[in-house]
UniProtKB/TrEMBL annotation:
Organism: Candidatus Magnetoglobus multicellularis str. Araruama
Molecular function as annotated in GO: formylglycine-generating oxidase activity
Record domain Sulfatase-modifying factor enzyme-like: where: 9-222
UniProt protein name: Sulfatase-modifying factor enzyme-like domain-containing protein
Pfam families, A to Z: FGE-sulfatase
Domain of life: Bacteria
InterPro entries for the chain: CTDL_fold, Sulfatase_Mod_Factor_Kinase, SUMF_dom, SUMF_sf
Amino acid sequence: MTGMVFIKVKGDCYEMGCGDWTGQCDSDELPVHKVCVDDFWMGQYEVTQNEWQIIMGQNPSLSAYGSHYPVEKVSWNDVQIFINKLNKVSNHQFRLPTEAEWEYACRSGGKPQKYSGKGLDINHLGWFKGNSMLITHGVGNKAPNFLDLYDMSGNVSEWCMDAYDKKAYSKHSKKKPLIKHGATKVVRGGDWSDEYSCLRCSSRRGYASDLKSKDLGFRLIRER
């Protein structure tokens, strides 16, 4: 009913974390470790203000420039309410991506990519502090990655399912890793207010689950 577009991502095993291809690493992106994910369907774009409005009946976004702009000012908790409502009126079931799924998709199926896109010119790939004019932009206006996913580097940062743990990479299971418990949740992708280094596919942050910010949104996984 929302017209969301999803891309099928074929699962596999890959080296998760900040590897030699990245060139710079934060401590919470290490160690590099092998994980495996199943096939999944990921939203081609960040969830838009129009899609949120259809389900929730209101638009919380500070930057309400247009219906095709990503929704923001939504907490992780808000997103769970949105998903529950969407699941009740849809023939499919939806959820946030796990951190492992998100990075796998950002890197076009686990390829050794620093950013999410074709090439290394970050101005071509994503919106960040240096090119955004410090505002959000409509989804899909930068180049996609090799899976045809847009804005995974930049525009708005994206909530993931996982609780944030600085030492998660020493605790992950190999098969479908997920850190379940904790009030601080993983955020990925970087955004329009960030330095370009934050747009790396391996970059990760943790925010309180009730945080609402003008540079923070999400995209969905369709389960079936």
